[in-house]
Amino acid sequence: MLARMIAYAAAERLADGTRPRSFAALMELYEINYIYMRRLIPDLAQGSGTQEVSLSRDGVALRLEVLERSPYTTTVLLTHRFESEAGAESVPDLTVRVYHDARVAEAMAAGGRTTRDPAGSLRQRWASNRFLNRWLRFSLGEGHAFRLGVPDDPPGPA
Known about the structure:
The protein has helices at residues 2-10, 23-40, 122-141; strands at residues 51-55, 61-69, 73-84, 87-99, 104-110, 113-114. By secondary structure, the chain is an alpha+beta fold. The protein has one domain (2-141). The chain has a six-stranded antiparallel sheet with strand order 1-2-3-4-5-6. β4 (87-99) and β5 (104-110) form a beta hairpin. The protein is globular and about 45 Å long. 25% of the residues are buried.
């Protein structure tokens, strides 16, 4: 199901009607994804939280887990978790790396499978990141937002 969702998102054309086929277009998509990630998680770069849940207006939970932090990047897992009698399912389960210094965000894995194959398929990266773009826009439209909390400033000289 996730593969079909990603393929559908990738089939979309840009606003000017063209299909992106260049590395430059992919970088532009990464920049737009960064803007949406910052709207969804404003304090991502300096926040101290590691797991949060955001409820939409309709009560659908979006889960955020910070997987890794470094001075210039933060890697997070974003997913919806659905419970049923058959068990729990996390969909779409995207791992996203945010590069704070470059101001870009890239889908690194979807459903546990990497989007960065050894061949460096531009098409595969475009599909995953276009899906991330659409999902972030949808999530923001549903009212999702996270507050990771900013650590207190150290006390200054008295």
